[in-house]
Amino acid sequence: MENNTSLQQQLLEAGVHFGHLKKKWNPKMLPYIFAEKKGIHIIDLNKTVDHLQEAAAAVKQIAKSGKKIMFVATKKQAKEIVSECAKRVNMPFATERWLGGMLTNFNTVRKSVKKMQSIDKMLADGSADSLTKKERLTLSRDRDKMEKVLGGIAQLGRLPAALFLVDIGHEHIALAEAKRLGISTIGMVDTNSDPNKVDFAIPANDDATKSIAIITNYITAAIAEGLAERQASKEEDEGEETSNENEARARRLEAEAQSEAARGGRGRGVAAAAGAPKRRIAGGASRRPAGGGSR
């Protein structure tokens, strides 16, 4: 409970509770509105804390399962914060412009990414040196344009499992594409948006930089936790495999030693059995002349 109280305090200080003007509100946000002050709706921070923790638990689970969560924020005040957070946990992001079809036409977008990567390779290995100065310049400009829009998804080999959106109204195209493909959505929802449009709505001020930063950082920390747990369980599995291998090896060596001992024992028994008649024959041979002498 103390943890919730301190989180609530941090959210309050970051101005997460400030909604839009009353006249701009979406009636579906009514359950999340605490009061109205000077014509502005105030968001209920108890609800924000609950929904934020629920969303954090969901992204943690997704990250733990090894899937990707894509960050989407093309608003000026959110770009830098979101791209930094996404890079920190090595997740894909779109902060410049949402290309129509970035998810629904993913294969075509991947081709553009590959083209960008091949230009990178040409510029790096010197194969672009054979081009004229003008051609090289054009190539570099094309590459920079692509990097701006596609840089955040360059390492994305398949569709993400979830989308984290800052301002679901502003990112309506991304939201529509995710919905069409059945991708989970987590979004910061202000008093002028419809919270039912996303799977995990976090009621919060989606315009203030501080508010965006605190919510995005909280979600990023949950992803980092999930990734750390995934790594730990991987290492544990590897450790178990190694110990199992060692046990199997020990059992194998023991079995070999036992079969070796059994073989050795049989050999000695055969030698002993072979030696006994010889002694008897030798004894008989030495006794016979004695009998002959008495005759």
Describe the fold and architecture.
- The protein is of the alpha/beta class.
- It folds into 2 domains: 2-101 and 159-231, Rossmann fold (3-Layer(aba) Sandwich); 104-157, Orthogonal Bundle (Helix Hairpins).
- Helix content is 61%, strand content 12%.
- The protein has 7 helices and 8 strands.
- It has helices at 2-13, 45-64, 76-88, 106-125, 133-150, 172-181, 209-294; strands at residues 18-21, 33-37, 40-43, 69-72, 93-94, 162-166, 184-189, 200-203.
- A 5-stranded parallel sheet has the order 5-4-6-7-8, with helices on both faces.
- Strand 2 (33-37) and strand 3 form a beta hairpin.
- Helix 1 (2-13) crosses helix 2 (45-64) and helix 2 packs parallel to helix 7 (209-294).
- The radius of gyration is 37 Å and the shape is flat.
